[in-house]
Amino acid sequence: MSTAEKKIVSFWDGRKNIRRLRDVSVTLLGAVLLAMVASVPLPPEQQLIFGIGTGLVFLICNRFKSHGITIFLAILSCGISLRYIFWRLTATLNFNTAPEFVFGYALLAAELYAVIVLVLGYVQTVWPLQRKPVPLPEDPATWPTVDVFIPTYNESLDIVRTTVLGAINIDWPRDKLRIHLLDDGKREEFRRFAEACGISYITRKDNKHAKAGNLNNALAQTDGEFIAVFDSDHIPNRAFLQFTLGWMLKDPRIAMVQTPHHFYSPDPFQRNLAAGTRVPPEGNLFYGLIQDGNDFWNASFFCGSCGVLRRSALNEIGGFAAETVTEDCHTMLKLHRRGWKSAYLALPLASGLATERLILHIGQRVRWARGMIQIFRRDNPLFGPGLTLGQRICYLQAMLHFFFGVPRVIFLIAPLFYLLLNQNVFAAPPMAVFAYAAPHIFHAIATNSRLQKHWRHSFWSEIYETVLAFFVARVALVTLLFPKRGKFNVTEKGGTLEYGYFDLSASYPSFIFAVLLGLGVLRGVGQLVFIQNDTMTFHALLMNSIWAGFELLVVLAALAVAREFRQVRSRARVQAQLPTVVYLPHGYVTNGITRDLSQTGAAVAVAQPDLLAVGDVVDVEYTIAGEPLILTAEVKRKEGGEIGVEYLLFVCHLGRRGEGGACDFRSRRCVGGLGCISAGSSVAQPVACCGEHRRLVPP
Amino acid sequence: MSTAPATSTAPAALQAAGPLAATETPEKGIRHVVYTLRQLGAAGPLQLRGTSELQGVQFGIRQDEVVVAAQLTLSGAMSPSLIPEFSNVTVTLNEQYIGTLPADAQHTRFADVVMPINPAFFQNNNRLNFRFTGRYTRDCNDPLSGLLWSTIYDNSTLTLTLQRLPPNRDLASLPLPFFDWHERLKLSLPFVLSATASNQTHDAAGIIASWFGKLADYRMATFPVLREPPAEGNAVLIGTPEELPKNIALPAIEGPTLALIANPNDPYGSLLLVSGRSGGDLLAAAVTLALGSQTLGGPAATVSAPEIKPRKPYDAPHWVGTDRPVRFGELVNAAELQRVGYVPEPIRIPFRTSPDLYTWRSLPFTAEIHYNAPPGPILDLATSRLDVSVNNIYLASYPLARIPSLFTRLEQWLGFAAYGNDVRVAVPPYDVFGQNELEFYFDTRPLHRGDCVAIPSPPPVSISPDSTLDLSRAYHIAQLPNLSFFVSSGFPFTRLADLSRTAVVLSDQPSALEERAFLDLMGRFGALTGVSVTGLEVVRAGEAARAADRDLLVISTFRGFQSASELLANSPLQLRGNRLDITLTDQIPALSWIFGDSVAEGQRVAEARLAASGAEMAVILGAESPLRHGRSVVALLAATPEALVDAVTALSDPTQSSLIQGDFVILSGPKPVSYRIGSTYTVGHLPFWIWPSWYFGTSPLTLAGLLVVAVLLITVVAMWTLPRRARARLDPKAQ
Fold this sequence. Notes:
Radius of gyration of chain B: 31 Å
CATH architecture of the largest domain in chain A: Alpha-Beta Complex
Number of domains of chain A: 3
Distance between the termini of chain A: 43 Å
Strand content of chain B: 25-35%
Helix content of chain B: 10-25%
Oligomer: heterodimer
Helix content of chain A: 40-55%
Distance between the termini of chain B: 94 Å
Number of helices of chain B: 12
Strand content of chain A: 5-15%
Structural class of chain A: alpha+beta
Shape of chain B: globular
Strand order of the largest sheet of chain A: 3-2-1-4-8-6-9
Number of helices of chain A: 19
Structural class of chain B: alpha+beta
Shape of chain A: globular
């Protein structure tokens, strides 16, 4: 290196150091100032003025969309909450009785948890990376080989079939795409199906380590450069590999690319609580915001499905992690510890069925909670080598999240300490509690609402959490003490429900809470209305009654989720408007637009409904990406201008009418070539069947 | 009966007035005095009840006097419902019978009942007791019945004829005969000073005045200044031989001298001579007297100045320190912590503190109190309780005894419930100011009241002298000027209790009355702190700049203060001739409308009041010293010397002193009026992490602004670094 070059380098390093010094010192100054503001006590009335002032700052700033303002508001919220917690720790812990002591510190712990999770959450989502797909090289011959793993245990072939067909139809050179059905159920039917489809069928003698063991077993028997994993109910899009592998090839240190789990059926909350209204699915927050935020910190993790992994990376850590029941997250944690990178693409490239019934949803979350807390106990991301601070924060946040049950239960019953037991768990005048807590709560809710507005509506988190709280709290505490307990339970999907019913097994805790909170509100309101109270008691009663009333609403909503509505269709319907042509038996043709679609039928608004009668057998032609797809169907119902059709033959061949293979849909038997239909992101996307791959252009 | 209850021991400021009549008969050394019960220490009429049947007063007789004749003249009333043969009030002096007031249903009131007292019953300390015995029915009396009462008016009088004893002039018996502990009246001790006394003479006089003030304590003291020895009685004589009156036979002055000599005008009177060859000798003699009078002996002594250890701030012995918990036993006699009776007089624990106490978040001080009361069988525990208050502000009540339930035992184990009768009382810092009093009020109920059984004799109750008061949470910081601090505690001068950071500024030619005002104030400082002002420096108005690094206390008439009027530079006040003016601060009307300008408002009102005040006007003002940042000036200024003395007297009158606050007080007419007219400054020390609370603790919007600034700073750094980091994340070569 010449001296001139050295000078340039040292000058640059100098600039960098100066910049670093500037950043560190300004941050320190800000932090000291923040701590100072947090430490200054104000009398309640003045604290109220302070809160109104900062609230106005929020309202004014919130009118601007810039991401810088979002960061400003998030830090502001941290400052306000810090101030609240500081006050809480220094001014409210003077208890008179033993129960007050116990409840009071329990509530404090719950609040500390909430603030820690709040702050870590801001850090986690401070800068969603919004990674775009990278195109693959021009020459497909240079593309790598990929093993697609579809692990299954007890899911029905009905469900698995679509996934396998979707995988077969991924646009990738045929000779470089190997699809493996990993059947831990050892079912002959599955073996025959795999054979018919021309894919590999892998099974094993024991079912040790559940899903992780299943994957590791397949890992040993295959040799593709990359491994894509799909749960048996996640149907991949044709573009899946082309969109995800670009990053793998661009950056050889990326060990895993994850895509969202997209569900085309409503989750229990959407179905039971918000039927007919547009509420984002529960998983949207995680896949829309959190994983994208994690990606900024190089901390997005594998979610067990809809992701691609690099075999060489997996080999380095000895395959999928089998120590916990959430093998996915733990596998990625191990990879991150070895310096591998991860990437997250916020493009729905596969879609699947949401858990249908609440009790199943609860079972799934209990498993996740157990697994994450197992990792927390056995391979805590705060300690151990190899992680950056950002990664530690993101993983910690992911694990801390699953402790939410305990604080949620405490928050639910906290107002009852006062209303039913006359215990002051807050050793402070109610006015002061209000003056300090209200800004803290306002900023936390409002800032999160700004951050999450595309992904989750305000207060839905409370409902999600309340439904699960008791179950997750129980498993969290047990797992924290005994991390080795617990087994992998497979989430059932794709069922039908003839009659609606109320699932008490999934809701008895909410039921108990609702009764208690109801009593509390009655007591509070009763004393407010019928008894002359001094100011202090009046404020305390009012505040606790409002609090209990709000919790009661949340609990009632949670109870409503447990009211399982009937679900007749075994195939979920997708709302979609597609132009169709309906060919009538007697040669007439009419145009139509679909209202919704499922794998077995459609609702179509036709131009000339008079031509049709219930029982007619028609051909329905869709035009997808400029190519026609024709399905033979029977008209099952006719209401006004809309007909409901059910496909008779499962036709999946591109081309003109009357050509192509077919399968008898009712008998589920292939007649001609392989049938396939794959549901894409938000519309049903029938895709090319068994043909040669095409090169796709990333959006 | 040594534990006689219900005698008021409160420092009775009302005793200020002397005996109703004191006449000196032609016989030398005989005098007659008449005291009312109130002057002897009763807080008001003695209210005798079924459950508080014994009350009385305590008073002393000087050691150099004997009682030769005495009589009691009583007025009062007794319940008309009493049965005469079982009901009366018995009067005793030192447990010796004096007389009985019988119950008389026809004459509820009694007036001027005269009872002669055998002079032999008197001692130095005397207890005059009234015991009430009453029955309103022959059997089954309820001691709590409202029918059982009698009242002895506090204007009942005790007339004494006193014979003075020949004086025994020995320095070893100091402070006798100038001050006698037994006397509970305000001390009045003349000082003889030359009209041309030097600064050091004044300094020495101040030290001695503060020493007597410290001794007089709650009795308070005043020091009239004379140019010649008084016609009768005792006096203090201070000065170099040249300054002293010529008609007195002086001992040989060969250095700092202390001597007791006869009053040339009164053979029974003594003069305390403080003299020396120079001003320095005078000071040495005064300091010796103040710090080491016990070591003296004989009629005269030549002394050498004792070594004075520098005092630490806030170490006044009369103040409860903030360095450790203080035992109640250190604050009052153990006897004061005991009472007998079902509803006895409250136990009062007076304590003084530095007035500049500040606790973070106003966290309370704690008093760990252990109290004793008989257990169950005597008292109805369900209704008996102990009420605790500070400065008459109720704090908490506690049951007298508890039978711990299982749950309580658990709480005890966890530390929430006390064992036995230990309680922790939180005393809010805003209820504590310079002069304070903790009050413990036992309210007990006998069992079986009203039942036809004998009530057990009144139970003893007490507060343990090992109970503690802990102020160690406090920091010393205050916003000055605050004249209420000056009035209640002599603050900021008493921060160093010996005034070693204080200079008193006197007129260039102080009159005797001005000197008296100065000495009275020094006596008051001695009483407030419990320390003589041995570190004091006295300067004249013209030489105030010499004491630039001290806090300045100005005691002067307007006229005498002319040459030092630049000391008011930090105050809007201006001295023009014999009148004061206020220079109104310029203000922007709009701003004052928004922020409220109480200072300008105060200036306007004070200006009007000043203009309307008459010739007999005095003012007290506080400001930051123009000579040194952080030092204070407090000025007592008056139009006439008489008004100046009245102003100093007003400081120790509780009804007037409680009205003194702010930074400017006008004393003209019956009540002082206080204003805030100038800027403030802060004195004291806080750890750095408390400073924000001190500065922003009352300005929420400033605090919100600071928060926004802090958040902006961090946001700016985030916007500098995060996009760079995001770009690097998407570039494989960057990492």
